[in-house]
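Work Package 4 report. The design task specified in the project plan requires that, given a folded chain encoded as structure tokens, an amino acid be chosen for each position. We show below one input record used in the internal validation round.
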């Protein structure tokens, strides 16, 4: 049995969140727009998600955690999207987000974009990016037809219903923050209580620095330098479709506050860090606010290393 703590949120209205986003975007991008719109069909191109909308009992789940990977991997920590959805009270719901693959199924570690519907009518459209040969840097982005994931996961769950969402566009970066850092910075500064957000965004033009985890390290990883020397970093090209979860503040649940993974049709994908082409970069995203946070199976021994 997995432990679960459900933390109800004092969810704000969209209007003050939009103002917060606008303030942060103004300091980081030359051009931007924030508006409340009807959610488009996210199953259509270019999004290609399993869920049509972001509405219906929206929830953020933080499962496991980085301490299951660092300093040494606990490969026995394997999770199932159906189980996570049940623990969140969203059986037969939709799940998107960022996690690691179930290494026992894939044969090695890799970055995973969770994207599926749970329950008896479940469908999985998840994608993973892995290093092909740990002695080199070649990678591949492929379909992952499994409900299982490993070690950690930052997930957004809902009923997939249509409804109002926050639409954000931004281009020509002039500041130092990545797209999600920028949005979350405003929430952290403007709201006393935690605000949890989930959704999807496109890097529609430009390039980004991403990492892809290779095989598990043979030696313990104790510092950020150890982690960065182990990871494989690449500059990859848009368009890149991301699933993302971010939380403004940790209400004492040992959360990872931001996590975004991406995939593409042209073979690029991984863990998003920041764009590398500030003069040409363009973003577009759709986001919803969560009603609650579900903290599932937190590590008994924790730390803050490797959570960027």
């Amino acid at each position: 049995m997995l432990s679960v703590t459900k933390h109800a949120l004092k969810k704000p209205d969209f209007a003050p969140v939009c103002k917060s986003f606008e303030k942060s975007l103004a300091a980081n991008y030359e051009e931007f727009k924030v508006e409340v719109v009807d959610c488009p069909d996210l199953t259509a191109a270019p999004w290609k998600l399993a869920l049509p909308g972001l509405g219906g009992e929206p929830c953020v789940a933080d499962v496991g955690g980085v301490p299951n990977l660092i300093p040494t991997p606990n490969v026995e920590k394997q999770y199932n999207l159906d189980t996570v959805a049940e623990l969140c009270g969203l059986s037969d719901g939709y799940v998107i987000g960022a996690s690691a693959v179930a290494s026992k199924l894939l044969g090695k570690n890799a970055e995973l974009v969770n994207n599926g519907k749970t329950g008896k009518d479940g469908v999985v459209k998840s994608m993973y990016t892995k290093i092909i040969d740990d002695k080199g840097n070649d990678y591949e982005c492929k379909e992952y037809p499994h409900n299982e994931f490993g070690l950690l996961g930052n997930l957004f769950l809902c009923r997939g219903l249509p409804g109002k969402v926050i639409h954000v566009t931004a281009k020509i970066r002039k500041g130092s923050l990545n797209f999600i850092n920028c949005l979350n910075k405003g929430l952290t500064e403007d709201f006393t209580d935690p605000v949890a957000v989930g959704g999807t965004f496109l890097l529609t033009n430009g390039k980004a620095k991403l990492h892809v985890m290779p095989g598990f390290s043979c030696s313990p990883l104790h510092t950020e330098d150890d982690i960065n020397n182990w990871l494989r970093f690449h500059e990859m090209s848009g368009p890149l479709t991301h699933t993302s979860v971010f939380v403004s503040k940790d209400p004492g649940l040992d959360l990872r506050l931001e996590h975004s993974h991406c995939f593409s049709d042209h073979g690029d994908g991984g863990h998003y860090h920041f764009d590398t082409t500030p003069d040409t970069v363009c973003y577009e995203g759709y986001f919803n606010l969560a009603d609650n946070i579900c903290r599932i199976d937190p590590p008994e021994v924790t730390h803050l290393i490797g959570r960027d």
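The helical segments are 14-28, 81-87, 103-106, 179-190, 224-230. Validation will be extended to a larger panel in the next phase.
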